[in-house]
Amino acid sequence: MNFPKVGSNIEIHSYKHNGLIHRIWEETIVLKGTSKVIIGGNDRILVKESDGRHWRTREPAICYFDAEKWFNTIGMIRSDGIYYYCNLGSPFTWDQEAVKYIDYDLDIKVFPDMTFKLLDEDEYELHSKMMEYPPAIDTILKRSVDELISWIHQRKGPFAPQFVENWYERFLQYR
């Protein structure tokens, strides 16, 4: 598998299970790009919603994508600490156009004190029925929620102390 070059500017595309585009993040700078992991940084970038709305992110963020995990994370750097928004979704793919994954609705918001909240369970139930998620996807996602919570508790991967700060320092070198 090829992968994006460090320092290059890429887009991130999320899709829904039915194959339709969900959201596009523009202008993420690749800080690490391998066949297994992509780490990117961005700040106040344009986000396009599938319904045509546009908005800008409010703060610098470090994004972590794993080719083997059914989740990705966004570490948002705010004045009162680092907040994480974790999307439960398929492992990423890279096709020269963008980092792509399927968003499966469930999210976990992690606060600076590492407490967290599972979000959008109702949306997951609705879309699961509407788009007929196979039972195997349900099993994978429930296991992935548990794995993600374990990573949060263990301060593993993108939740490790100084992970976001260190990658943010690299991001600043490319701006």
From TrEMBL:
The active-site annotation reads: 23
Keyword Magnesium assigned = yes
Task: Keywords in alphabetical order, please.
Answer: Aminoacyl-tRNA synthetase, Hydrolase, Ligase, Magnesium, Metal-binding
Record domain DUF402: where = 19-156
Which Gene3D superfamilies does the entry link to? FomD-like
Similarity field = Belongs to the Ntdp family.
The protein depicted here goes by the name: Nucleoside triphosphate/diphosphate phosphatase
